[in-house]
Design brief:
This protein is mainly alpha-helical and about 210 residues long. Helix 1 runs parallel beside helix 7. It is built from eight helices and no strands. It starts with a helix and ends with a helix. About 85% of the residues lie in helices and about 0% in strands.
Length: about 210
């Protein structure tokens, strides 16, 4: 029982810390909350957390394969480089379009916010290697085994750690009601800049592997 609690706390903390720095997911949670309401922001966060749990589950079963075959990680990093580059261009184009074209108010269903959260997280190709690495480290420390209780704890803690940060982002930005228009206007520029930063970081990781 004690190792389950350690496993939950360690995985929750790792997921929490990985989500805290401003990035594609938490900035989109904030943006969704400002533009479409707090509830849609929470639903978006639930969609992201659901996909995180699915990815963590997959990571449990392929962690040994990934670390015994380093070339797989190289391929994933190269694909991620292309994805981040695409989104950098996309967000800058959308930002310029928003500045020149008046935006009509569109009512977006909570279901759409949920699946949008799942889709955006699914595009993050570094999530599975990250949780595979955690799984390998926890395995060496003796905190996790390939048993049902351990796998469920690992997956649930990953989802809860991620959701906790996104929830905080959702409520923090939602309180800035007087600045919502300014944030909405600049959010795509912020996301585009973050994508450029991720491109640089990923490129450095590829060059120095």
């Amino acid at each position: 029982m004690i190792h389950i609690l350690i496993l939950f706390f360690a995985t929750f903390s790792a997921a929490f810390m990985a989500t805290v720095p401003p990035g594609l997911l938490n900035m989109n949670a904030a943006k969704t909350s400002v533009e479409k309401g707090k509830l849609n922001g929470v639903v978006f966060s639930l969609g992201v957390s659901t996909m995180i749990m699915l990815q963590a589950y997959v990571a449990v079963w392929i962690s040994k394969f990934l670390y015994n075959n380093p070339e797989v990680i190289d391929i994933l990093l190269k694909i991620a480089l292309g994805v981040f580059g695409f989104f950098a261009v996309y967000f800058f184009v959308v930002a310029n379009r928003k500045n020149t074209t008046p935006k009509a108010e569109v009512r977006v269903s909570k279901k759409n916010s949920y699946f949008r959260g799942m889709l955006l997280d699914a595009l993050n190709l570094l999530t599975i290697p990250y949780y595979s690495g955690l799984n390998a480290m926890w395995n060496e420390a003796g905190w996790i085994k390939f048993e049902t209780a351990d796998i469920v704890t690992f997956v649930f803690a990953a989802g809860m750690g991620t959701f906790s940060v996104l929830y905080l982002y959702t409520f923090y930005f939602n309180k800035l009601e007087t600045k919502s228009n300014r944030f909405s206007k600049n959010s795509n520029y912020i996301l585009g800049a973050l994508m450029v930063l991720l491109v640089i970081i990923t490129l450095i990781r590829i060059l120095y592997r």
